[in-house]
Design the sequence.
């Protein structure tokens, strides 16, 4: 048997092995990761700068309150904003309870067998399906087969389908992160499964669940393709006043403006993007505040 | 007000079996996890208002046996528990028995202190609340915390998080939480293994105190602890195919001075385990 490769002993702390090489690799790593982060932030900054430069001058009160028009100086987003708010609220109303309930079933109730594994794989795949496919599905099922027509309800149900997998998966992750010992403690004092879930697991998981919902809804607000397919109208002259009215949304209005020949409309679209960004950020802010509220109620 | 509460509680305890009489009778208990047989053919009795210690080397199934007593193993999908565990003459393992009711009568304290991420008050009150108690909660919380020798340390901060307490205090809070349902039996799964020696001694003193009104079963790795606190000691060992088997169940005094089985003697004298 050959002698094993034993490291030499040394009385000094100066490098006698491969330490300097290992430290060099470590510092290269730091530079690479920093560069990747900076590149991402820089790309975002350039985009924002470009949009603000083009759109800032077109920001006005009229942009928020005017209906669409053929003249760029008179055109506004009021109907699209109202359509987006309708679609998003209805989407949330459907997808949030359904998504969280599905996640609770899969994590807390369902047995772990072949069928639930199959279900799980399907949900993961659905999260990766291109959004335009959901649009086609919505067109086929809600608009045509159920004969709802090109209305708010059909659009919102399509968006709910699109958001569900993301909400389910992120809610499941949030539930999984709750330590088993917490469930044991609650079962140990004679609680039923529902009492354990409702009083301990769910409240502790709320911050994580809301993070997933924020992500899903943010994505839905910005989506153009599925609603374009599933029936948002390009030109609507009145705000929707119910589920069964025709609608348009901000991204679709912007898409419409950008395809016009006049450069003024493209500048107007840039201003519209700023409006969309502000809407997104304020919705996220509300969610973060709600999340904070819940985290402070659970006293970790 | 504490007095008022103590009255019915002790009365009911006295109304069950008399101290020293068997309260839980475990017969031919077998536990499987999937294809693995974790515990084979375990039979012993747990006496009323006594402390029974389950000891033995790692992996010999003592925690598995303990968790069968309050149907905690039901929560593990692959676990299968067979045999009989008679409690007041009724088989705990029977399919007609709701495990939720078992756990309300047989409380549990876990290895790692696991208070709810709620206030100290709610930690104690929640178990009673889910079991339908509405009135007199303040008195109940105080009574439980006093019984768990924690009241004086926390009475001024009942609305603080249970997790802000020290490890030993957290474990006493978990004991107070178990008392809130006025159980007949308290199971303790290595309750001191995450605690320092001082906190351990406080818990041990508390166990002796609680044994006046409750039947306690404790799993411990620490033989000195078994010798210090328990009345009866049940020694488990590893049999064929790493299956846990019961070697002997004897009064603690006998098992440490005059064990019947040579394997017990080897273990307690430190020759293995």
Sequence:
């Amino acid at each position: 048997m050959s002698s094993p490769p034993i490291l030499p002993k040394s009385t000094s702390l100066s490098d006698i092995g491969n330490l300097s090489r290992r430290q060099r690799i470590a510092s290269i790593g730091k530079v690479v990761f920093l560069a990747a982060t900076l590149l991402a932030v820089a790309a975002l900054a350039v985009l924002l700068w470009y949009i603000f430069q083009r759109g800032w001058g077109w920001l006005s009160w009229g942009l928020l309150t005017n209906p669409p028009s053929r003249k760029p100086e008179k055109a506004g987003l009021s109907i699209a904003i109202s359509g987006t708010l309708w679609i998003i609220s209805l989407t949330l109303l459907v997808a949030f309870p359904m998504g969280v309930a599905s996640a609770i079933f899969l994590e807390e109730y369902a047995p772990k067998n072949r069928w639930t594994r199959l279900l799980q794989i399907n949900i993961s795949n659905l999260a990766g399906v291109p959004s335009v496919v959901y649009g086609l599905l919505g067109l086929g099922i809600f608009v045509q087969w159920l004969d709802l027509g090109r209305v708010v309800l059909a659009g919102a149900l399509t968006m709910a389908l699109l958001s569900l997998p993301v909400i389910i998966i992120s809610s499941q992750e949030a539930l999984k992160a709750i330590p088993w010992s917490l469930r044991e403690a609650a079962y140990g004092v004679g609680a039923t499964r529902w009492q354990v879930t409702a009083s301990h697991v769910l409240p502790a998981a709320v911050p994580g669940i809301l993070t997933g919902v924020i992500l899903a809804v943010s994505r839905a607000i910005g989506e153009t393709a599925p609603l374009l397919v599933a029936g948002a109208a390009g030109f609507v002259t009145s705000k929707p006043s119910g589920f069964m009215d025709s609608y348009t949304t901000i991204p679709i209005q912007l898409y419409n403006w950008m395809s016009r020949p006049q450069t003024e409309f493209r500048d107007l679209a840039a201003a519209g993007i700023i409006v969309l960004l502000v809407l997104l950020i304020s919705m996220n802010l509300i969610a973060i505040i709600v999340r904070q509220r819940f985290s402070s109620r659970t006293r970790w | 007000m504490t007095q008022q509460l103590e009255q019915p509680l002790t009365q009911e305890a006295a109304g069950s079996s008399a101290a020293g009489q068997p309260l839980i009778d475990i017969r031919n208990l077998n536990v499987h996890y999937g294809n693995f047989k974790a515990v084979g053919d375990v039979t012993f009795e747990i006496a009323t208002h006594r402390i029974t210690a389950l000891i033995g080397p790692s992996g010999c199934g003592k925690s598995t046996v303990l968790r069968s007593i309050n149907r905690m193993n039901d929560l593990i999908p692959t676990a299968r528990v067979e045999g009989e565990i008679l409690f007041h003459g009724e088989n705990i393992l029977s399919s007609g028995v709701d495990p939720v009711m078992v756990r309300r009568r047989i409380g549990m304290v876990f290895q790692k202190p696991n208070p709810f991420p709620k206030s100290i008050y709610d930690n104690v009150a929640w178990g009673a609340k889910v079991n339908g108690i509405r009135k007199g909660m303040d008195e109940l919380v105080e009574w439980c915390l006093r019984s768990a020798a924690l009241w004086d340390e926390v009475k001024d901060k009942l609305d603080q998080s249970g997790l802000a307490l020290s490890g030993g205090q957290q474990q006493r809070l978990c004991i107070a939480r178990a008392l809130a349902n006025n159980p007949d039996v308290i199971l303790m799964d290595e309750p001191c293994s995450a605690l320092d020696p001082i906190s351990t001694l406080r818990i041990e003193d508390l166990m002796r105190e609680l044994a006046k009104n409750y039947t306690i079963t404790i799993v411990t790795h620490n033989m000195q602890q078994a010798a210090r606190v328990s009345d009866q000691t049940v020694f488990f060992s590893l049999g064929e195919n790493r299956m846990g088997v019961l070697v002997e169940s004897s009064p603690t005094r006998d098992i440490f001075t005059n064990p019947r089985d040579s394997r017990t003697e080897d273990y307690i004298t430190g020759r293995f385990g």
